[in-house]
Every structure is written in structure tokens, then in C-alpha cells.
Amino acid sequence: MGFSVSGAAAIIFATMFVVFGMWYTATANSFEAVTDAEQDRTDAVRDTQNTEVAIQSVTYDSPNDEVTIDVANTGAAQLSVADTDVLLDGRYQEGWRENATVENTDTRLWLAEETLTITITGVTEQPGRVKVTAEHGVSDTTTEVSTV
Q: How many angstroms separate the Cα of 136 from the Cα of each of 46, 98, 144?
């Protein structure tokens, strides 16, 4: 009953330290991942609540086959022109970002209280419905299209 009991106790204590270290590391990393995910969700909800866009006007220029859309960033969040999408009569439009301006300036950042002007070329008929979707899925839709 001498060394074998002391040796077994030492092995058990050493094993408990190793097991506790592995358990603590796994739970700490899991807790950190959950906390980060909750923070990301909170940030996304806040950004969505601070994002709002409003279509001010849509003009169809039939001789030039162009649609011009003025959209105001009426929210508090800054938006990216690259993350903005346009649909005419439910059809996704591409290639308009090169012609887009914010407050008559060629920029890719769309700040609060600024107006984005979108010009889409090659539109052969007047659209009946226009939808602009900004970041976070926030959008505005209109059926009011004036003709030039």
C-alpha cells in the first residue's frame, strides 16, 4: 500500500487536470463563438433598422430607351452602390452601376440623406413596376413612371 496508491493518485490527478483543460478550452471556444454570432446578429438587426430608401422619381425616356431612377437614402446608415439592386418589371438589371452617381458625383458610397441617380440603358418599353433594393434587403417599389 505504499507507492501504488500514491502513484495511482498522482495519475488520477494528472488525468483530471488534462481532462479539465480540454473541457475548459472546448467550452470557452464554444461560448466565444456563440457570443460572436449573437453580436453579429445584433449588428445586422441594427443596420437593418437604420437602413431606409425611398424612390423619388422614375422617368422613362422612350427616344433614348433609358430609365432614370432617383433613390434617396432616407436612413441613417451609409450604403454601398455595389450592394444595391434594381428590378424593372421583376427583371434584374445589370450594368447600370457604371452610370450611377450620388449627388452628381461618381462614387461608390451612398451616405444618409443623399440621392442615388441610376440610369439604365437599352430599355425598349416603359416599365410598369420599379424596385430598388439596398443592403440588408431594405427596398422600395413604385409603379409611378413618368415618360419623356
A: 10, 22, 25
